[in-house]
Amino acid sequence: MASIIDGKAFAATLRTHLARRIAALRHDENITPALAVVLVGEDPASQVYVRNKAAQTVEVGMRSIEHKLPASTTQEALLELVAALNADAEVDGILVQLPLPDHIDADRVLEAIDPAKDVDGFHPLNAGRLATGGTGLVPCTPLGALMLLKDRLGSLSGLHAVVVGRSNIVGKPMAQLLLREDCTVTIVHSRSRDAAALCRQADILVAAVGRPRMIGADWIKPGATVIDVGINRIALDAGRTKLVGDVDFDVVAPLAAHITPVPGGVGPMTIACLLHNTLTAACRRRGVELPN
Ligand code: NDP
């Protein structure tokens, strides 16, 4: 039976460490990093995310600035707000919560964010830096997944990692991060032939698909480490619902060496890494050393 990778506990430790470093930054440099979060519209899941981000930002000792705009906000008005946040010397990180309403071109908005303040790591310049080996800001969810992997396995060098999913926010940056760790990387997507056979070659399997319990026992090499990024809400009886991953945990856990649960695996790492990125951005753009 696999050992469980407890992302909730790891994220709590990471936040404690961040709080200590942020206190040192305030003490030594009189800097309190500030994260601005922009929410457009009333999507209930986004409202919960934004509330959690703000609470955890304050908890670790940073400043949280929230901009809640109505769903009718025009693209021009949103771009003006982003420009104002770019120009504000006190703002270190800018996050525009996705998804945006249909009438707004999300790519244009993300590209308008100053790459030095792009704590989500979605700006093409940061994506390019990740691909070319530079030091940009890295998307939070894959960064969190990588931290869990390195904590559990140590060096990843030479391991065969298979990433299922190729989105710009999870799959592609995950693959780049694993390549940077000297893994041999395979990316599986919806057009891949015999995805299960490809996944059976994996020492490390990362699932970022968005299909409940798609990865079954016949997708796993015994002894593999399995990272489940998927968050899917499924219906139970009597109107109840449940969160499940992309991995069929009950049949995969007996085969794997290590596995992340859903919830409580990769999910909690995302906000912790957002706070980590905000501290990094604050130090880099203000030209001070990152406290240890
Ligand atoms: P996207 O929908 O953007 O991407 C899904 C990817 O899965 C695509 O690349 C798609 O391939 C691939 N895919 C779809 N069906 C199959 C299939 N049958 N076989 C192989 N590949 C397939 O999703 P995201 O990357 O944004 O998110 C993935 C999951 O991670 C979701 O469950 C999401 O909720 C979760 N998530 C969790 C986060 C967290 O933990 N905080 C943060 C972000 C996401 P193709 O490109 O060919 O269409």
Automatic annotation (TrEMBL):
Q: Which reaction does it catalyse?
A: (6R)-5,10-methenyltetrahydrofolate + H2O = (6R)-10-formyltetrahydrofolate + H(+); (6R)-5,10-methylene-5,6,7,8-tetrahydrofolate + NADP(+) = (6R)-5,10-methenyltetrahydrofolate + NADPH
For molecular function, the Gene Ontology terms on record are: methenyltetrahydrofolate cyclohydrolase activity; methylenetetrahydrofolate dehydrogenase (NADP+) activity
Please report the stretch or stretches of sequence annotated as the Tetrahydrofolate dehydrogenase/cyclohydrolase catalytic domain.
5-120
**Stretch forming the signal peptide:** none
Per UniProt, where does NADP(+) bind? 165-167, 231
Pfam family example for this protein?
A: THF_DHG_CYH
Q: Would the keyword Transport be found if you checked this record's keyword annotation?
A: no
Q: Does the keyword Hydrolase apply?
A: yes
Q: Which pathway does this chain act in? A: One-carbon metabolism; tetrahydrofolate interconversion
Q: What Gene Ontology terms for biological process does this UniProt record contain?
A: L-histidine biosynthetic process; methionine biosynthetic process; purine nucleotide biosynthetic process; tetrahydrofolate interconversion
Cite the entry's keywords alphabetically: Amino-acid biosynthesis, Histidine biosynthesis, Hydrolase, Methionine biosynthesis, Multifunctional enzyme, NADP, One-carbon metabolism, Oxidoreductase, Purine biosynthesis
List, for all copies, the residue spans of the domain called Tetrahydrofolate dehydrogenase/cyclohydrolase NAD(P)-binding.
139-285
Question: EC number(s) for this protein?
Answer: 1.5.1.5, 3.5.4.9
Q: Which GO terms describe its cellular component?
A: cytosol
* InterPro entries listed in its UniProt record: Aminoacid_DH-like_N_sf, NAD(P)-bd_dom_sf, THF_DH/CycHdrlase, THF_DH/CycHdrlase_cat_dom, THF_DH/CycHdrlase_CS, THF_DH/CycHdrlase_NAD-bd_dom
Describe its assembly.
Answer: Homodimer.
Which family does the similarity line name? Belongs to the tetrahydrofolate dehydrogenase/cyclohydrolase family.
What biological function has been recorded for the protein in this entry?
A: Catalyzes the oxidation of 5,10-methylenetetrahydrofolate to 5,10-methenyltetrahydrofolate and then the hydrolysis of 5,10-methenyltetrahydrofolate to 10-formyltetrahydrofolate.
Protein name per UniProt: Bifunctional protein FolD
